[in-house]
Design a protein that fits this description.
six-stranded mixed barrel, globular, 3 domains, Barwin-like endoglucanases, Dimethylsulfoxide Reductase, domain 2, Rossmann fold, alpha/beta
């Protein structure tokens, strides 16, 4: 996030795109209730579904799945055509505006409205509302990124913020809501195939040299593989062994049958987790990790805040904290690591990750600090890009609209969208083991528009089969106007009706994120 969580409540206008915040980030959604209830904030929601926040929105743009770029370009074209852009911000802090402006000519307002499935007048209203505010913020989640052209979606969001000068001030900014706990921290620490800790590129020889000096070893100069690329390599035999920690790709990754076949094709699979997940059940060795309540360390949350985590109980049974397991295995392989505690690891982090320079345990004893915190006694950074962008001038990028990889066909006439339900999290490894939560939502429900259901002879509560080009599942139909006609929605928490048996492995060419949010499916009633 360029800003802080609290800043979202300070926005005069909040554009919420690709995020069912009430379900996926309920604590953040609760913080929005005050300004929404009191009328201090106008809300624009862009979502294929009529979520709870969409029902409360001043404008709900119920777009066809996968048409975010077309919509955002139409909004920006209205802003430019009506002279609502922040010309002072653009001239002083941005580059590439000319090429970007020309790219807006790709689609007329009417063409974009037809592609997106929303009225042109609503696009105009949204553009005027967002650009006419003194403080407008954008928040988005996986509904923006999990597309074969998710990078273009994010670039378009950034273009919109720069076009209107909504960067570097309270109540503004581009604010991705991270999809899981400590995803931000994992990325900060180099948990990406092309980056070292602190977002330094693997291919940068100077950056590599600094880490080689710090770690006393040579580093590969070439980026590694992403998760979906690893599964392809496992299926083809190019990868022989895999170590999976705290992840359940047999349920969470697209085309789950392809995932399972890849894992079974390995010579050796190790899984380190807190439960025997569907992935762990395939492993030759399972290493029992400790839960958050059984270990010390830090988490870095979605607003870049580094926070202490304190052990409440000792690890149960044979479980150990993850850092100890990794250290001991590395030492058995001759690494010679001498870390004695998470505090010692944090000391090394401060030495090699510039953004974490003065984030010490003593300083975050009571309250976390937002990076970058680069020098002694620095208070942390609540808002990024206040005076200048880290890269100098902001780079506006021309982005073209490209259709999703799969569109409806006679055999697969509906579009499937996947996401979360309030009572469960991710693959259900923890929440499905909670008796109370599982009673609240014990199985998968497929949301369908009543018009589609009537045409197919499906009633609420019927058992249905959902089929894609990759697989099929059986679940219970729930008829609701939350879904637009032509679309269905399925949460991905349920192994017995795994949504990712259906989803598409098509990937973004830049970041390699798969298109989990759009795939073509057929639906039929079962006796």
């Amino acid at each position: 996030m360029t800003n802080s969580i609290g800043d979202l409540s300070m926005a005069e206008v909040l554009l919420l795109i690709g995020s069912n915040t009430t379900t996926a980030h309920p604590v953040i959604a609760m913080q929005l209730n005050g300004p929404l209830r009191e009328g201090g904030m106008k809300l624009i929601v862009v979502d294929p579904r009529r979520t709870e926040l969409a029902r409360r929105a001043d404008i709900h743009l119920q777009i066809n799945p996968g048409t975010d770029v077309a919509l955002l370009k139409a909004i920006m074209r209205v802003i430019v055509d009506e002279g609502l852009q922040d010309s002072l911000f653009i001239s002083g802090r941005v580059e590439g505006f000319g090429e970007f402006r020309e790219s807006l000519e790709e689609l007329t307002l009417e063409q974009a409205a037809d592609i997106c499935g929303v009225p042109a007048k609503d696009i105009v209203r949204a553009a005027r509302l967002y650009a006419g505010s003194g403080r407008s913020a954008v928040a988005y989640c996986l509904g923006v990124t999990q597309h074969a052209h998710g990078t273009d979606n994010v670039r378009a969001v950034a273009n919109l913020a720069m076009l209107t000068g909504n960067i570097g001030r309270p109540g503004t900014g581009v604010n991705p809501l991270r999809g899981a706990n400590n995803v931000q921290g994992a990325c900060d620490m180099g948990g990406l195939p092309d980056l070292l800790p602190g977002y330094q590129k693997v291919i940068d020889s100077e950056a590599r040299s600094r880490f080689e000096d710090a770690w006393g070893t040579a580093l590969d100069s070439q980026p590694g593989l992403t998760v979906t690329e690893m599964i392809d390599a496992a299926n083809s035999g190019r990868i022989k062994a895999m170590y999976i920690m705290g992840e359940n790709p047999a349920i969470s990754d697209p085309d789950a049958s392809h995932v399972v076949s890849g894992l079974k094709n390995l010579d050796f699979l190790v899984v380190q987790d807190i439960f025997l997940t569907e992935t762990a059940a395939l492993a030759g060795v399972v290493l029992p990790g400790a839960t958050f309540a059984e270990k010390n360390g830090t988490f870095t949350n979605t607003e870049r805040r580094v926070q202490r985590v304190r052990k409440a109980i000792d690890p149960v049974g044979d479980a150990r904290p993850d850092w100890r397991i990794v250290r001991d295995i590395a030492n058995l392989m001759g690494a010679g690591w001498n870390y004695g505690s998470p505090k010692e690891i944090m000391k090394e982090i401060r030495e090699v990750v510039r953004q974490y320079g003065d984030i010490r345990y003593a300083r975050i004893d009571q309250r976390g600090i937002q990076w970058p915190c680069t020098k002694d006694s620095h208070p942390g950074t609540a808002i990024l890009h206040e005076e200048t962008f880290i890269c100098g001038r902001g780079k506006m990028a021309a982005v073209d609209f490209i259709e999703p990889e799969e569109m409806p066909s006679p055999e697969y006439p509906l579009i499937l969208n996947t996401g979360r339900a309030l009572y469960h999290f991710h693959t259900g490894s923890m929440t499905r083991r909670s008796r109370g939560l599982d009673q609240l939502l014990p199985g998968a429900l497929v949301d369908m528009n009543p018009a589609d259901a009537a045409r197919m002879g499906i009633a609420d509560g019927d058992t249905i089969k959902v089929t894609s080009r990759r697989g099929q599942i059986e679940a219970t139909a729930r008829l609701t106007d939350r879904c637009a006609a032509g679309a269905v929605f399925l949460p991905f928490h349920f192994a017995e009706a795994a949504a990712n048996l259906l989803t598409n492995t098509a990937r973004d060419p830049v970041c390699k994120i798969p298109e989990l949010k759009v795939c073509a499916v057929g639906v039929e009633k079962l006796d």
